[in-house]
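Reviewers of the previous submission asked for a worked example of the structure-prediction workflow described in the proposal, so we include one complete record here. The input consisted solely of the amino acid sequence. No template or homolog information was supplied to the procedure at any stage.
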Amino acid sequence: MLMWAGITRNPGVFVLIVSGVIPTAESHRQSTYGCQPVAGCFPGQETDLPIAGETFIKHFFLKLLTFTRQPNTVTSEPADDIEQEDRLRARRLLAITAMTPANTIGSILNLLLTMLVTDGLVNRWLAAIWVISTGLLMLMAVLSWLRILQRPSLPERTPARVERRAVAHAALLALCWSLPSLSLFNIAAPEQQLFIATITAGMICAGGFTLYTLPRAALTFVGILGTGSAITLLLSDLESAKYLLMLLLVYLSILMISIVHASESFKAQVIAEIVSEQQKQVISLLLNDFEQSTADVLWETDQQLTLRRSTVRMSETLGDPAADFSGQNLLELILQSQRQLPDEMQELAQRHFDELQQRLQDGKPFRDLEIPLWVNRQQTWWTLTAKPVEAGWRGVISDITQTQQARQQVWRLAHEDTVTGLANRRHFQNELGLALKKTERQKGLLKALLFIDLDRFKAVNDTFGHDAGDRLLAIIAERLKTNIRPKDLVARMGGDEFAVLLRKLDSEQQALEIADRLISSLQQPCDLGNATASVGASIGIAFIPTDGLRTETLMKHADLALYRAKGNGRGQAVTFQRQMAENARTSSRIEQALANALRGGRINLAYQPQCNLDGGQIIGLEVLARWTDDELGSIPPTRFIKIAEETGMIHELGKQVLQQACLQARLWSADITMAVNISPIQLASPGIVDEIADVLRSYRIDPSRIELEITETALLDDSFSIQDKLMQLKELGVRISLDDFGTGYSSLAYLRNLPFDKIKIDQSFVQQICSDPKAEIMVKTVIDMANALKIQVVAEGIEDQPTLDRLRQMGCDTGQGFHLFMPMTPEQFGSLLVHKQA
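From that input alone, the workflow returned the following structure tokens.
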């Protein structure tokens, strides 16, 4: 449900609260009573009394005792009554406001479910009007809630007219949510009636308990929704309608009584807190008035802020114990000390000094105002507490340097990376958000976000250990800071990923120049003490505001550019282009559709025959995965297999392909082999050998009829013992084929050390043997070498008769290509077999 309530001293500002779930009592206590109490005294520390003697002490404690014995009740003064009611009203509304984010989600869910379940029961235009109306209220609620969050402090008082608006708004929303039951219940199907009844009952309870701190609004909401439900039951033709109506009335009564009791308890607790706060404030003023505080230094000035007296403690605090500061201006002493602060502290010091000046000009008491200074050649922090007196100001100074240092340490732990000292992800995202807001206010500013990914960092970690990896990260961080401008921000986002915020640019070219400088610096060798390591970096760049004005959008675009930089060969900087986002969205759609297709077993197979080039007999088939989605259409294998490898779905895809191939192999001739491609990622799986063995046993297939095709890239990194797994597969009886030979490293060591049964010459060479003498020599050499090693050779991509004739002359055993056979469906190949046997 949505509830409108203004919580402000200004009549034109309002807040919309969205509530759709029942809040817990604890959440209300946290949201309502979470403010810090005003400290009134500081026990346990020394106290300086400007008025000496027993008479003063007795006088002071008698006043304090008289105050604390006053009854804890609401004052009888009319003005105080009004103020207290306004403060109580503000607390009530703030308790509801705190639930806005969760309640917004609940309301959206209610709307979506209602529209989904009741679709078709009512005219779509009427349904749209209802949804738009409710949605606008939800939107207004969120915007108003955000407006409240942007205020420097929460409102302490709220006038009565705001409560009346809140009640009216609750009534409107109750009427709005009564419409589904009143208009749809009697025409709905039983399941739809059950849904309408359930969501109406839930809304009644949720509304009552969410709004209980404001009883008029809660009772109005529950009453209207309950009345609507009662009318619905009266108009229905259910046999049990009268009994349901009786139950409804009983439960509504119980709910309303509970709301009243809970509201009264809430009111009593808030009033007790308000009175307690008032007592603490009075006690604090009494203590400060008689200079009975824990402050380190007492001070007093005239109207011109000239110090009337200087104590030894004040001289020590100002860094010159022998000096007498009487007759000097307090603000001038503070300003002289602040001028000695480091340059990076000057702006902060000026803000605090300006605030102190403003407080003194206002002529009102203030407390615990923090000021940074430079005392005894080190940074020091004071807090000033003061109140105006008849002839000037009187106050105390407390040294909080240790407390401030502890705060700074906590801040560093929360905002800095412990390994590099750079900003961490959380701090960087906050700063990026502030930069985006500033860009929205100041048009024409050009900024850039750089995402940096180190190349070969994992190899350094694995080779030299994590300590060396940490030293390398620290060196990288220092180089990044050295090669950016002082106004820019660099952060470690995690692992070997860094980010840089270029806060102000003259042009996009300037960002590219900085990125090139960073890449060049990171490519230089790094001395790790006992070793030297070399890494590189790839950088993705997104510009502000061109590529986005939201933190999530901008970071996603920079990441897409980084992904492209790594895909293009690494060691380069790439700027974001709109097509990258479109490609990412398309890939995401393909990923989701592929997951559904794998769950539904909708991956099909095509089979391309491999023929003996001399006799033309079909001796094997290459299994090709094919997938056509209902919405996306036919997806090329190169596209969806790549996505499957990136997402880990390649394991399930490969398993299903092998299962289908085994199933078909049982239906066809026993002398035909099935060549199944296997991904390097599949081979990296620890259980790949057992998985293949299980499939072969399940379908009772002779392992020698299955031929696994791998590429050379799978053999480059043997950290997953891929070569050992190939030996195990060979022992299992499976045939092993080296695919696309000639396009990779074409290492002869693989042919010598690994049990390959077949070499497949890549089509990029085969298709040029009639036009390129070099290609012809290479293909001839591979054929002769394979024949000498007694390894079968398959020429891929035979697309014309001259190529076929030339391969026969070279002594090639087997070939495949469009000139021989096109890829076929299982039915087509079955028909081909029948035709050949006939």
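Confidence is low (pLDDT under 50) at residues 1-77. We consider this example representative of the routine output the project will generate in years two and three.
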